[in-house]
């Protein structure tokens, strides 16, 4: 049996829940502009490794009730919770619903990969805290993420370079970790780039950056959000600065390999397929 067939065989009976963090309005804007939702991007990246997962997608923001999914949460072998344009400290019903749903997942799903917004929701639900980042933002790329001694021993970073760049898009950061959490990696912008903690029955691997999203999509998102990045976020003075930043990311594309960029996703899938 070749390696690809073996990966599919091992995943064939695994049930995976993907949680979409964006509001339905944002996803509709993505679709109108020809941009994949975060859930769609994640499914595409997962297909790089296997097509045999039984995948369901759920959006706590758009569902009026959790009554249909809560009784079935125990069937999922794992959960991946992806990105969002929301800020968790802005109190609204959609954010409260996501935190509430994460707490339910802690009761019934053993293995969770929480990415960017997903990590912020998981940390908040487990008693940590997220605030607006004080050292700037990541716009399409996070530079010089460095794995610490704890991270070097963790299966999340198996076969990963100690220092690396990654696709990323965030304005907020974890400032307080849940009790018992293990900090795994940092860079100059965000002290917490990755974390491992347990809550309820869940083993949570959290990432602030986006190994599952390509740099090409990040460039598309920058162009899609350029007016907000200039006028509201004040990240750039004008479109020329944005284009220079895009040029910088395009240089990174030339020097990066897809398999290396997505190593954390592969490592979590290896963890998922284990007993």
CATH topology: Rossmann fold
Overall spatial form: globular
Helix content: 25-40%
In which order are the strands of the major sheet placed? 2-1-3-4-13-12-11-7-8
How many helices does DSSP assign? 11
CATH architecture: 3-Layer(aba) Sandwich
What's the main sheet like?
9 strands, mixed
- By DSSP, the count of extended strands is 13
DSSP strand (E) fraction? 15-25%
**CATH H-tier superfamily:** Class I glutamine amidotransferase (GATase) domain
SSE succession: HEHHEEHEHEEEHEEEEEEHHHHH
The end-to-end span amounts to: 20 Å
**Which CATH class is shown?**
Alpha Beta
- Derived from helix and strand composition plus strand pairing, the structural class reads alpha/beta
Domains counted in the coordinates: how many?
A: 1
Describe the structure.
By secondary structure, the protein is α/β, with parallel strands linked by helices. The protein has one domain: Class I glutamine amidotransferase (GATase) domain (Rossmann fold), CATH 3.40.50.880. Helix content is 39%, strand content 21%. The chain has 11 helices and 13 strands. It has a 9-stranded mixed beta sheet with strand order 2-1-3-4-13-12-11-7-8, sandwiched between helices. A hairpin with a 7-residue loop joins strand 11 (182-186) and strand 12. The longest helix is centred in the C-terminal third of the chain and has 17 residues, at 239-255.
């Amino acid at each position: 049996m070749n390696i690809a067939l073996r990966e599919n065989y091992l995943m064939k009976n695994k049930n995976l829940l993907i949680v979409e963090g964006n509001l339905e309005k944002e996803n509709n804007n993505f679709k109108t502009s020809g941009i994949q939702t975060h859930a769609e991007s994640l499914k595409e990246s997962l297909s790089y490794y296997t097509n045999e997962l039984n995948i369901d997608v759920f959006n706590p923001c758009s569902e009026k009730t959790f009554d249909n999914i809560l009784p079935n949460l125990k069937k999922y072998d794992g959960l991946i919770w992806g990105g969002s344009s929301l800020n968790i400290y802005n109190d609204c019903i959609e954010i409260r619903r996501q935190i509430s749903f994460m707490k339910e997942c802690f009761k019934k799903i053993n293995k969770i990969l929480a990415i960017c917004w997903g990590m912020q929701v998981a940390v908040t639900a487990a008693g940590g805290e997220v605030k607006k980042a004080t050292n700037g933002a990541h716009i399409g790329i996070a530079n010089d993420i460095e794995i610490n001694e704890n991270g070097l021993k963790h299966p999340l970073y198996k076969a990963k370079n100690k220092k690396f760049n990654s696709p990323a898009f965030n304005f907020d950061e974890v400032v307080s970790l849940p009790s018992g959490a293990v900090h795994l990696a940092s860079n100059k912008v965000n002290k917490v780039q990755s974390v491992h903690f347990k809550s309820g029955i869940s083993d949570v691997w959290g990432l602030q950056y986006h190994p599952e999203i390509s740099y090409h999509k990040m460039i598309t998102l920058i162009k899609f959000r350029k007016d907000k990045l200039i006028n509201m976020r004040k990240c750039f003075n004008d479109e020329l600065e944005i284009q220079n930043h895009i040029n910088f990311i395009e240089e990174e594309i030339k020097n990066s390999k897809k398999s290396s960029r997505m190593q954390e996703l592969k490592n979590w899938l290896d963890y998922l397929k284990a007993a």
